[in-house]
Design brief:
- The structure is a single chain.
- The chain has helices spanning 15-23, 53-63, and strands at 2-7, 30-35, 42-50, 67-68, 71-72, 74-77.
- The chain has a domain at 2-74: RRM (RNA recognition motif) domain (Alpha-Beta Plaits), CATH 3.30.70.330.
- The longest helix is centred in the middle third of the chain and has 11 residues, at 53-63.
- By secondary structure, the protein is an alpha+beta fold.
- The protein has two helices and six strands.
Length: 117
């Protein structure tokens, strides 16, 4: 099973469009267009899974740089997803090391504030 990355897609491209395009090179197992989480709009790239490695290589050779939907496609073998580090906004990431925390000041004496009138 070979997973292919297809980039520089038109935002109007559908999964059936890609299935039809890649069927000319062999069997297509799955097509997944990446969508934005918040808007649901296509992000301009997709992943196509083909069970036969030879057919996948033919698809890469035949479609790389080909004009499709008004854009030149970028087609290559998909790389495995890199391990991501937690971001500031991630939830449930556990304690943040090296970041500011109120726990650092819980036992220090508070200075009285000056009134604001």
């Amino acid at each position: 099973m070979k997973s292919l990355f297809v980039g520089n897609l038109s935002f109007q491209t559908t999964e059936s469009d890609l299935t039809t395009l890649f069927k000319g090179f062999g069997e297509v197992k799955r097509v997944q267009i990446a969508k934005d989480r918040e808007t649901g709009r296509a992000r301009g790239f997709a992943f196509v899974e083909m069970p036969n490695d030879e057919e996948a290589a033919k698809a890469i050779a035949g479609l790389e740089g080909k004009l499709f939907g008004g854009r030149n496609l970028k087609v290559n073998e998909a790389r495995p997803r890199a391990e991501r580090t937690p971001t500031r906004n991630s939830s449930g990431a556990g304690p943040r090391q090296g970041k500011f925390s109120n726990e650092d000041y819980s036992e220090s004496a508070r200075q009285p504030r000056e009134p604001r009138w």
